[in-house]
Amino acid sequence: MKATLAALLAVALPLPAQSDCAMTQYRHVQASPHVHVFEAAEGTTAVVNGNVSAVVGRDAILVVDTGQFPSIARRMVADLRAISGAPVTHVVNTHWHGDHLMANTVFKEAWPGMRIVAHPHTIEQGPKFYDDYAAKMKQRLPGIVADMRKRAEASQSDEEKLWIRKTLECVEAIGPEVEHTRYLGPDLPVERELRVDLGGVTAHVRHIGPANTPGDLVVWVEQDRVVIAGDMLVAPVPYAIGSDIAPWEKTLTVLRALDAAVIVPGHGPVMRDDSYLRDVQALLATTRTQLVAMQARGVTKADAARELDTKAFAARHLGTPMRRQAFDQFFVKPAIAQLWPK
After folding, report:
1. What is the CATH number of the domain that holds 57?
2. H or E segment at 116?
3. How far apart are CA 36 and CA 53, in angstroms?
4. What confidence category does residue 7 fall into, taking pLDDT thresholds of 50, 70 and 90?
């Protein structure tokens, strides 16, 4: 899975003298009067970090996702304290993938009284993957890195070689984080909705349907008409690893019905309209239709990858080698794997 792969790769390796990994950086964007976003760099390698958002009220702050790297999260904590003297009372984990919740511990250290909110599915899945995280990653990483290097040597694609090289650069840059990373799970389950009054603004934490995972949560700030969507929406490449794309398409209809003026995706820049959301919904629909028809005709898994037509989405959003590779790794292959299981 995407999050598992990112977690596996974000482990202890020597930090090079000069590292070129964008995942160590983020950009502070004020999305609306009450919503601040720490935008992660474009997540097209196998090492990614989720966007972190903060809904800032007069009396309290609600944080949406925490990322996975402790040192980066500590910088965000300092930024938040510069923005407001109000405490963080709630952290919402939109789903269980590690690039959105492995830095929960950092925020808990800064604000010990805060609650960590998540859907029961997220609460159930997290420990399966992230208990004893550091020990597991140290044990498994060498084999993963060795496999990626072999894959690069065998590949006939310059774009795939570039994608692997950039991924391994980020492995080395982010590696030292692992020994400082400890999983802290959510403690406040939300199955449908939780309203949090922050003083002058209310955050509505909602489960509007399954999407990237069965337990995806969104945060709707009605006063500002901002929705923080988690990995229900990811740009420039949707992440579909382990996802069921049939209900996901329907859930995006519910998301669109909010008529948000601002959409904060789980990865990617703050959006001021729903054009990308529409493109992703159309991609999900056509992908599902094509794959179901192929399976009915007896098309093999390998042939399905070659036959799948995603040209419309590619023309709009996949203009770089890294984006094309990420699209293949994070969307096409997982979508096919859902219907052609091992």
Report:
1. 3.60.15.10
2. strand 115-118
3. 6
4. very low
